[in-house]
Write a structure and sequence with these properties.
- The chain is of the alpha/beta class.
- It has ten helices and eleven strands.
- It has helices at residues 6-26, 43-59, 74-85, 105-111, 123-130, 139-150, 170-178, 198-202, 254-257, 271-288; strands spanning 2-3, 33-39, 62-68, 92-95, 159-163, 187-191, 207-210, 227-231, 235-238, 246-249, 261-264.
- The strands form three sheets. It has a six-stranded parallel sheet with strand order 1-11-8-7-5-6. A three-stranded parallel sheet has the order 3-2-4, sandwiched between helices. A two-stranded antiparallel ribbon has the order 9-10.
- Helix 6 crosses helix 7 and helix 6 crosses helix 10.
- The longest helix is centred in the N-terminal third of the chain and has 21 residues, at 6-26.
Length: 293
């Protein structure tokens, strides 16, 4: 069993990005600028956005954080999105999800200029990804694919089972792994809450991507020997062993599953850091106008 170290890989990629940013600055080019809109004070969102800001500093990007309280109106939030759309200094931006219930996430996502949509959530980017056209790839699936590439994991003709059909991970990951590329060329099965015989389907999988948001859903008896397991889950569960009173738990029962795997990602330190570097890569592309002129 080999552990797929997302943290170490993300550090390596950040160094590559930082080197390119240095070259851009040295040649008189524009410093990439990433903005983030954060609504409310959700603990997970706060941590995630803080990590994004820190990562921007590490690679030499400029970053802007715009905060709103939970009671912000949809109209005011959309006005902020429009302002960023029209700001020539902002290369890319994200609106951190989830949003309060009185705000339509779809409406906000669609209001973002797809040329600045570095999360890869806009329908234009999702559509272009499905057609294998240049676009900003969804950050987490892009990070997963990059891990498979960097660890030289064979995907051609492999059966990949994805647990979860979310627009953020499950669906885009399925599209990327079906594409005529490496990593890709997989036969993909997407399982979800209405799927029957999940255990039997997982036992056929060469690669399993667990993205259900259900702590330790994937058990040892659901995985065949030599499988590759990518754990996307990050659920906070109570713990009396940490100062914070909680710990991050993945969708995989790691101690049971790991001994059977050829490769497996840990939680934390697996997919999470790769999501952030994928966002940085998209921002770099946005700044260089390499995807959309």
């Amino acid at each position: 069993m080999q552990l797929i170290d997302g943290k170490a890989t993300s550090i390596e990629i950040k160094k590559e990005i930082a080197k390119e940013v240095e070259q851009i600055k040295a040649s008189g080019g524009k410093t990439p600028h990433l903005a983030a809109i954060l609504v409310g004070h959700d603990g997970g969102s706060e941590t995630y956005v803080a990590n994004k800001v820190k990562s921007c500093e590490e690679v030499g990007f400029e970053s802007t954080l715009i905060r709103f309280e939970t009671d912000v109106t949809e109209k005011d939030l959309l006005a902020s999105v429009e302002k960023l759309n029209n700001d020539p200094d902002i290369d890319g931006f994200i609106v951190q999800l989830p949003l309060p219930k009185h705000i339509s996430e779809d409406k906000v996502t669609e209001a973002i200029d797809y040329r600045k949509d570095v999360d890869g959530f806009h329908p234009v980017n999702v559509g272009r990804m499905s057609l294998e056209m240049p676009c900003f790839l969804s950050a987490t699936p892009s990070g997963i694919v990059e891990l498979l590439r960097r660890y030289k994991i064979d995907t051609k003709g492999k059966h990949c089972v994805i647990l979860g059909r979310s627009n953020i991970v499950g669906k885009p990951a399925a599209m990327l792994l079906m594409q005529k590329a490496y990593p890709g060329d997989c036969t993909v099965t997407v399982c979800h809450s209405r799927t029957e015989n999940i255990k039997e389907i997982c036992l056929q999988a060469d690669i399993i991507i667990a993205a259900l948001g259900v702590p330790e859903f994937l058990k040892g008896d659901m995985v065949k020997q030599g499988a590759v397991v990518i754990d996307v889950g990050t659920t906070r569960v109570p713990s009396d062993k940490t100062k914070s009173g909680f710990k991050l738990t993945g969708d995989v029962a790691f101690d049971e599953v790991a001994p059977k795997c050829a490769y497996i990602t840990p939680v934390p330190g697996g997919v999470g850091p790769m999501t952030i570097v994928s966002l940085l890569k998209n921002t770099l592309l946005a700044g260089k106008k390499e995807v959309y002129n």
